[in-house]
Amino acid sequence: MAELRHNPLSGQWVIVHVEDSWGPEKYEREDHSILAKATCQFCPGREFFTPPEIEAVRRSPPGSRPNSPGWQVRIIPNKFPALRIEGDLDLRHDGMYTLSNGIGAHEVFIETPAHERNLADLNDDEMFHVIDKYQSRLNDLTKDRRFKYILIFKNYGESAGTTVEHPHSQIIALPMVPQYVAQELEGTQAYYDRYQRCVCCDMIAQEYRAGTRVITDNAQFLAFCPFASGYPFECCIIPREHTCRFDTMNDGEKYALGNILRETLAKIKGCLWDPSYNLYIHVAPVNDGPQEHFHWHIEIVPKLMRTVGLERGTGFFSVPTDPDHAARYLREAAVIARR
Q1: Is 338 inside a domain boundary?
Q2: pLDDT digits over 156-184, tens only?
Q3: Of 226, 236, 224, nearest to 281 (Cα)?
Q4: Residue 30 domain-assigned?
């Protein structure tokens, strides 16, 4: 027996299999054992293979020069950017069609000098530096008034779209608000207009009351499997207090976010045999006034299934694993403590 469930944040309906729910053993396992370290352009000592760095966290030796070894986190322009920062947007029309120049920004965060490690393997300080640089680049790109939306994302594993095995994530700045984001904004605004409350804050309260979909939490953040998950073992990390601003977190909040993000990814890695995944940080649009009805959050989607005709033809996603069961598997997954 399946249930149709409605996502109040996006307005999307999904099909969830609640009686014949799949466990982790039902999904295919990926092989991440082949590491091309010998030719990796992101490893220390090969900085000259990449574009000049934009920012970096330098650790050893103190005062090491830019574009040289000794960094902990390094941000560079994408060598093959989807969009380029130079030029004018030049929005124009061709009959019924609208087009513009490919203006934007596309940068890469090299998260660690260690080729074999990933976010799930970093310690508290290493995670803090990654989060801190996410915030720094978001703040800096927001100053460009051409940009309307900025997405921080990570592709891990071949089936998630990564082409470089060294641990990295990306940031892309767009001159317009994407349709998917606009739908979330419309959903959060409609809920606020109806109830005078934030939909995500109400979601947090209900997840705590139910308890069955909670994965882990700390004083500042909650990680859970959404009630209307669009994908099996989908996870959401969200601030427990209402805020639409990722860019205003203090150091304590950045440490707390790094801690729960690392723990959640470690649980996914242990429970599902290190699957590929996509990670997105959903923030409010920039340079467009306050969006106080919006509540920023992180979405993590393990790549356990292929999108098929039903999803592409209808927008209905069929999820073989009940989110309650997925959260239980993830809660019980062992995580090695790191300091």
Answers
A1: no
A2: 998 999 989 999 999 999 999 999 899 99
A3: 236
A4: no
Q: What residue numbers bound the domain in which 228 lies?
A: 2-23+36-332
**83-124 confidence digits (pLDDT tens):** 999 889 898 999 999 989 999 999 999 999 999 999 999 999
Is residue 29 situated within a structural domain? Answer: no
Cα distance between residue 336 and residue 333, in whole Å: 10
Average pLDDT, the chain: 92
Alpha-carbon span 324 to 38, nearest angstrom: 43
Q: Is the pLDDT of residue 337 over 60?
A: no
Residue 269: pLDDT band with limits 50, 70, 90? very high
* Residue 133 included in any domain: yes
CATH number at residue 57: 3.30.428.10
Is the Cβ–Cβ distance between 152 and 281 less than 8 Å?
Answer: yes
Is-contact 14 230, C-beta < 8 A?
yes
d(CA 261, CA 223) in angstroms, rounded, equals 8
- What's the rounded Cα separation, in Å, for the pair 142 and 315? 32
What confidence category does residue 312 fall into, taking pLDDT thresholds of 50, 70 and 90? low
What is the pLDDT, as a whole number, of residue 336? 54
Q: How many domains does the chain have?
A: 1
